[in-house]
Design brief:
104 residues
């Protein structure tokens, strides 16, 4: 049974910080990908608004996600470098894929 956790983080910075924002997000993603429980970590930049990025993160389970949030790089890069640039943020956390019947 799949117990993975999916995190969708939609973040924005000031337009003038877009280049630095992208750089530190990539630095953070590289560090996160080294975590044993990180299955994937991808960052996408908006084609229409370069100051807006979406990160798609997938962890093996809730314990792996908790370990991610307790990691040194989460504190040093995520909280120390990424968050000071963030002006808007929407983070959603989802559980393992489910069989969802069609609507209607």
């Amino acid at each position: 049974m799949d117990s993975s956790v999916l995190v969708v983080a939609d973040t924005s910075c000031k337009p003038e910080d877009a280049e630095e924002f992208g750089r530190v997000l990539q630095e953070f993603a590289r560090a996160c990908r080294t975590e044993p429980g990180c299955l994937s970590y991808e960052v996408f930049r908006s084609l229409d608004a370069p100051e807006r990025c979406v990160s798609l993160e997938r962890y093996a389970d809730e314990a792996a996600f908790a370990a991610h949030r307790a990691s040194d790089h989460f504190r040093e890069i995520g909280l120390g470098k990424v968050m000071p640039l963030v002006v808007a943020r929407d983070v959603r956390i989802y559980d393992a894929p489910q069989d969802v019947p069609p609507a209607g």
